[in-house]
Predict the structure of Sugar kinase.
Amino acid sequence: MPSDLRPDRPTGPISPASVEVAAVGETMVMLCPAPGVPLQDAERVAVSVGGAESNVAGYLARLGHRATWVSRVGDDPFGRAVVRHVAAAGVRVDSVRVDPGAPTGLYVKDPDPGGTAVHYYRAGSAASRMDTGTLADPRLAGARVLHLSGITPALSATCRALTEHAVTDRPLPGALVSFDVNHRARLWPVDEAAPVLRDLADRSDLVFVGQDEAYALWDTADPMAVRRLLPGPRTVVVKDGAVGATALCHDAEPVFVPAPRVTVVEPVGAGDAFAGGYLAGLLRGLDPARRLRLGHLVAAQALGSIGDNAALPPWPWFERLLDAPDDAWSPLDLTSDGVDHDHNGL
C-alpha cells in the first residue's frame, strides 16, 4: 500500500460498487462565442461544462478508477446538462443533490485581442449551498481519497465550513485528503485567501500548488520554501509549469521530474489533469517519480486539446513512458511532431 494512504484504511478488497475517489466542488455551464468574436457582438454561443474537481474525477475515471463527483446543481436545464456531462466521462453522479431553490452556476467567456475576459454568475448558486452535511452520504464510505480544492471555500461561508470539516474532522474514515490550492483571484483577494488556503493545505495529507501561485499567496520562492510553510501534509507537490514538478514527502528526499515538451493548444484544465494523473499513480502504488510522470503525461493531453477534458491514450502508452529510463524521459518531446501513441518518441 502506498505510504501516503492512511494506514487505518481497511486493507481488504474493495467492493466493485464502492468509490475510490470522491471529488467535491462546483461544476458550471460555460457559454463561449466563436473565437475572436466579442461577447457583445455574438449571435451564437457554444455551451460546455467546466469544474476543477469534476475534471479530476473525469481523468481518474478515464484511467480506470472509480471516481464520484459530489456537489449540488439547480433543478434547471443547466444542472441536468452538467450532470449528464460529468456522467458521460465515466464519473459516478449519485452523490449530486438537485437543489430546487437555487440555480446552477454559469460563466461566460468574452474573447478580446488583449485577452479573454470571464464573467461569472455563480453567487447564490446551488453548489454554494453545500455544507458540512454534504459528505454524510453513506455511498462515499470506503473512499480511499477525498479530493477538494481552494475554489470551494471561496464560494460561501457554508462551503468554507464544509472544506474545514473535510480536512479537520475527516468525515470519510481512512480517506487521504487531497487539496489543490487552486486560488482564484476573481473569487477572493490574496490578502483574504492566503491565510485560509495555507491553513486548509497544512491540514491536508496531499497538497498540489503551483510555484507561481505559492509566490503570489505566500511569497515563497521555491519548493523547499513551500514545504517549510506547509509542514503538515505527508506530501506537497509543487508545479512549475513547463519546467517540471517536485514532490516533497515526509522522511524522503525531494523528487523533481521535468515536464515533457508539449504543443500548448489550451492551458485551461492542465492542473486538474496533472492532479488526476498523480492521484491515479498514487492509487496504483507507483513511486513518487512515476506519480509525477503520470501527472505530466495526463496534463500533456489536456494542454494539447481544446476544452477541460481531453481524451487519453490507452494505458500501455502511459506504462511504457512511466518505465522509460531517466535519460530518455528528460528530453521527451510530446509535441505533435515528436511522438505518437505507438512509438512514444523513445
The CA atoms of residues 54 and 65 lie 14 Å apart. Confidence is low (pLDDT under 50) at residues 5-16, 337-345. DSSP finds ten helices and 13 strands in the chain. The domain at 17-143 is CATH 3.40.1190.20 (UDP-N-acetylmuramoyl-L-alanine:D-glutamate ligase).
